[in-house]
Write a structure and sequence with these properties.
Elements lengths: L1 E7 L2 H17 L5 E6 L3 H16 L5 E4 L29 E9 L3 H10 L7 E11 L10 E7 L4 E6 L9 E6 L1
Parallel strand pairs: 2-3, 2-4, 4-5, 5-6
Antiparallel strand pairs: 1-8, 7-8
Length: 178
């Protein structure tokens, strides 16, 4: 197994800051905007985005955590999956939802998340923000609105995101080849 470093500090912080600037351009005052991080690792990225936007704009944008495990199309085909907590303490009815995940690969998790979000209302608009876009791996026609970094990968490669919040010594993103 080989590991290649894709992104780490300080470039990772610059990437998050750039994504936040793009969000500010499109959402301006964030009046009707909310952030929803996808479990399990998208929540760490979503929290970073919320904190960066707070430091730039002074606005504390509502943040939720969404688990789409039971909405996955392969739910019964895989080994038993452990669900994570869903915490969306607000309605998304008529809101602009910024759906955040660390890695976009096949698009199946995003499809499941869109289904799971319907329990919290019908949003006005949904935008997808990802840290890593694994291009050439899509099974569904899903395209992110905001991308930190695009990475060319093949089926035998995996992108691993390590966050300090998970107990790692530093934030790092690796390309792992089996």
């Amino acid at each position: 197994m080989q590991r290649k470093l894709i992104l780490s500090s300080p470039l990772l912080e610059i990437t998050i800051s750039r994504l936040c600037q793009e969000l500010i351009e499109n959402h301006q005052d964030f009046t009707d905007s909310v952030i929803i991080g996808l479990q399990p690792r998208g929540i760490f990225f979503a929290k970073r985005i919320q904190e960066e936007l707070l430091s730039i704009t002074g606005k504390n944008i509502p943040l939720g955590q969404l688990d789409a495990t039971f909405y996955r199309d392969d739910f019964r085909r895989r080994e038993p999956l452990k669900p994570n907590a869903t915490k969306v303490p607000f309605l998304i009815e008529n809101k602009k939802v910024i759906l955040v995940d660390d890695v976009l690969a096949t698009g199946r998790m995003v499809r499941a998340a869109l289904d799971a979000m319907t329990a919290f209302g019908r949003p006005d608009k949904v935008e997808l923000c990802v840290l890593i876009d694994r291009i050439y791996n899509r099974d569904l026609p899903v395209k992110p609105d905001y991308v930190g970094k695009k990475v060319n990968t093949i089926d035998t490669e995996k992108v691993l995101v390590e966050w300090k919040e998970q107990g790692h010594e530093a934030d790092r993103i690796w390309l792992i080849t089996k």
